[in-house]
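Escalation from tier 1.

The customer reports that the assembly of four entities below gives different structure tokens on two consecutive runs. Tier 1 could not reproduce it. I'm attaching the input and our single run for tier 2 to review.
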Amino acid sequence: MLVVTTPDITPAQLDAIREHVEAAGLRTHVIRGEQRIVVGCIGDDAALVEDGLAAMPGVESVTPVLKPYKLAAREFSAGPTHVRLGSAARPVIVGGDALTVIAGPCSVEGEAMLLETAHAVRAAGAVALRGGAFKPRTSPYAFQGLGREALVMLAEARARTGLPVVTEVMDPRLVELVAEHADVLQIGARNMQNFALLSEVGRVQRPVLLKRGPSATIAELLMAAEYVMAQGNRDVILCERGIKGWDPATRNTFDVAAVPVLKAETHLPVLVDPSHAAGRADLVPALSCAALAAGADGLIIEVHPSPAEARSDGPQSLDLPAFDALMARLRPFAAAAGRTLPAAELAQVAEVAA
Amino acid sequence: MLVVTTPDITPAQLDAIREHVEAAGLRTHVIRGEQRIVVGCIGDDAALVEDGLAAMPGVESVTPVLKPYKLAAREFSAGPTHVRLGSAARPVIVGGDALTVIAGPCSVEGEAMLLETAHAVRAAGAVALRGGAFKPRTSPYAFQGLGREALVMLAEARARTGLPVVTEVMDPRLVELVAEHADVLQIGARNMQNFALLSEVGRVQRPVLLKRGPSATIAELLMAAEYVMAQGNRDVILCERGIKGWDPATRNTFDVAAVPVLKAETHLPVLVDPSHAAGRADLVPALSCAALAAGADGLIIEVHPSPAEARSDGPQSLDLPAFDALMARLRPFAAAAGRTLPAAELAQVAEVAA
Amino acid sequence: MLVVTTPDITPAQLDAIREHVEAAGLRTHVIRGEQRIVVGCIGDDAALVEDGLAAMPGVESVTPVLKPYKLAAREFSAGPTHVRLGSAARPVIVGGDALTVIAGPCSVEGEAMLLETAHAVRAAGAVALRGGAFKPRTSPYAFQGLGREALVMLAEARARTGLPVVTEVMDPRLVELVAEHADVLQIGARNMQNFALLSEVGRVQRPVLLKRGPSATIAELLMAAEYVMAQGNRDVILCERGIKGWDPATRNTFDVAAVPVLKAETHLPVLVDPSHAAGRADLVPALSCAALAAGADGLIIEVHPSPAEARSDGPQSLDLPAFDALMARLRPFAAAAGRTLPAAELAQVAEVAA
Amino acid sequence: MLVVTTPDITPAQLDAIREHVEAAGLRTHVIRGEQRIVVGCIGDDAALVEDGLAAMPGVESVTPVLKPYKLAAREFSAGPTHVRLGSAARPVIVGGDALTVIAGPCSVEGEAMLLETAHAVRAAGAVALRGGAFKPRTSPYAFQGLGREALVMLAEARARTGLPVVTEVMDPRLVELVAEHADVLQIGARNMQNFALLSEVGRVQRPVLLKRGPSATIAELLMAAEYVMAQGNRDVILCERGIKGWDPATRNTFDVAAVPVLKAETHLPVLVDPSHAAGRADLVPALSCAALAAGADGLIIEVHPSPAEARSDGPQSLDLPAFDALMARLRPFAAAAGRTLPAAELAQVAEVAA
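Tier 1 run:
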């Protein structure tokens, strides 16, 4: 940590700063420049994080030198983390050579539409099924999801297709229930800093898909992952889904640079949600290709058998043929990125056998 | 709701759009322009909110005509809502002629510092006490608040000073507990769209101080209030506390225009938190004056007996003399705004009598 | 300047960094922490600004210690700068005790409307007249201003009312022409980093009203002022006019905190343009009051005799009675801020005498 | 254009609105909803753009139906525009099947470094050379470019390598001079709405590379292109280079979605500048791949023989081997996108022959 002092600092103020830092167990080192004095603080920055150093008289600014995340930092792990989803016998690995495409409806609206979607996305090469049971909606008057009933449908769809199931949990009181039915607990963007919820999913043994908040920096996303990991659950999958922007052309601003930045900062796998980033189905293919080209470990995509009938997110949902076409379009980009995508044909064979 | 269609829409697509809208119980009205056809939808927009109208073939854009909030809308109430805090005998009224200044430490760090702060801010003219028991912190390694113990201290401070107590609740499982000890339930900025929590505080009879999320539009803030109100709790106080910005000069960007916009849109009272908006104690006075001049119903300000010793938010906390000076500086602005501020002298007399 | 190095820096890389810095005439000072080495660079940062230090192997980040602006920095001047507008005999002083309200139409649309506005705003207490001759318009098909003809009308309005005239210059080839007719050269927000133009207005002896760019940080605004001042023209007036934001409720986001930040950083006077910040006439009064309360030295406001007939910016223009009402509403806030506003009555007397 | 009226509109106000619209030559069509009246305006919206319709009593909001750009709109052209750079005999085509990679130093710092870079980037497959002669710098004290001298060096580099030359022009007085030496006139991001400059480059017959401003919407970028095209110059190349964002992890936020949005909206070619988007050389390869995957027509990349010695933008410049590696990495992505990249080997042969 580096403390830049004000031009008019007094010797007594400087002494107080040094004593304050040293009382936290760090050593200090003073550099006297021509116009400013800088105090270098040697030792564990974290000891100083929560205090009022920046509020002391004579302090102009405090700059941390070390990253605030530890378990999520790339240095913490010898290599990229592989998160295993689904059955122990035939797990889906997120973060390995094979890209992970997760697809399904925004909301589970019924058993028939869910199964139709599940079979179709599996046939096209998706390896996991998404579907909302509890929906965060801006309006209290909008459809809030089918809740527990939808969890049962998701479990049924998994039984029929073999696809592990990803669904959002919004309430710490429901973590256990959702973990009973789902293979992956999704933390939605609006809950990225819901620390009660992060701690709760940190205490169960289910992979967590953690979406970046609309106004969260990349460092804040990693700190949210740290909350989960600090409770003991190391299976965190990060997801860029577009951040708050000011151009009305898209629903959010897809921060594709977050992918390589995260790859440099952390060992955790990184997915992209192009559907929420764009908010428009016509842009989903281009953003999906860009995500893979930037180094993402996979995608999570909204697919609906009939987007015009969708009870939520219709405009950004692909219909079944469009998803099929997208998967075909992705293959050469996956190859260009040195990654693999499950073949659509093989998936169909597996379906027949299932 | 107005539906603008694509230039190449077919008659069959236009029919399908009209049927879709009419199936929801609305009437349609078609305007044929030189280059585009527009379908006006007459009736309750809300019936169409959750569907896939925008995903239908031939639809270019959908523009709502009516505001999505109802209970929070200004039209819903004959006049400004007055929220009553504290004892029935001597309540504090938020939203009336008298401005409401709430002050206290970011975190409750101990009984002595809390009482010292409470007496000092009351003497200076504050009418309620803030203090964090459960703290949302970006890092899992930072001080998380004293929890239940702090709630007891807050209740004790109220007993000693008569000041109603405002504290944040972050977990729906703790709403009941917090409501037992506190007079106002604060929903923090990061939880503005934590819908499980909003619904839960909507079911208790305690005023709610709802902070605007860092990337929430004003309309989204009002929709969050609607969540609370739709559960039966109409005592919602809104709070602008700075939004996500890109200038590092301040911690957040204080959107002072939100104050008059909210005053035009809703009957609910509007406070401003200049401490989080600025992130720097030296800016708090100017932003406080600006907030009152813009029409705010009051302020919520972080005050600490020794900011350099604070366990959180030290750099943005005022010390006790600075708060006293601020209150003096605010008085002429309160008068200019046609509002009153409790006199510091009277507050001190009351203290002696307490 | 502080250089934080990478964890794996080699001794040779460290030596190269030190030699690089020392070759620019600075001294270096090395702090060896437990995980990182920091190189403190002692001397004039500016010598290093334009080089590739941050690109050297082993460098993780470079943090400047000193502010990049010199002439605009508060330390450069013994006190606040007073900029004098208009005639030497009865100048208007910007930055003194008296607040400066500049008002007038977005565009000069004709002689009659300009004179009507000029007389009315003077009667209400405005001390200078604004009016666009050359208009920056997003569309090439929109009204671009009356150009030279409008300059003549502005000079005529000054002759009739005694009000100094403020108008925008967009083209370095026209600086001389505009300076012949106008008392203040306005640099619009979109041209804040038009360095050819900044240099050109820096070479004439006319006060410059420099608007903050929609995506400019406060530091960048001060660097733009530095461009003008470095050419010899020290009469720069800064203007906050709203920055790029993402809430559609307002045209821009009024960054009221920029006012106290600028007051702390620079000796130059600071005005606020509430009309462009809001984009809506109904918000202009609240934002104007907030600006004065935050410490602004004055306002520049769009006023039109018939906003519905305006050829540009109608929705954000006040009509004449609304401007009159605003001036009355501002007076107690000016007094609360310890400033004065010219009395409307006196202004009217002066008008009769003129 | 659709006019939504206020709930309390009077019949006289409604009549006035209709008369206002009809006076501009449009027809009106009134839809009476249950709570609001909407006035549809049929005809050329543009006739109403510059007036005060939104300021009329009784108007709540005005929503345009048609896009404001005409020459730049996709409908204006039968197919994608191909912009030809350089010699008539062997032109480089931007916007065709072959991707266009433009590379070179941020600033021309001398003849030797320019030629070394030019030969190296040509050998790696670049088809045009970039290099700044006049540099827009935030600080007046930073290196401003070598000016005219650099133009001569660029022309010399073209003569030696056959690469067409791209350089920025910042001053309308210098457009003619720059056009004499350069093959493409670059308009920098900060000048995207410098309308005097846009008009001037619209009057010469040189292709224009128009960079998106840091706070410009995609629609505003297209309107800036419209300014150039309206003067007669139809050879406009658009360039996404990152927009203003709030995450300090990158210099700007690369809005990769702008690529497919622009491809849907306009016939003009679209390049990406990953160097300015990232601000960090290590991210340039990932962003370049993402750009091609999203459908960009090419890239403009900063390359320097020794980034640590660069006088500007060192941290984001690739060195020569890194650029060579990038071109190799791009090839499979180009193929996946169905596009071609000039082969590095062929380029080298051509160099020998030159």
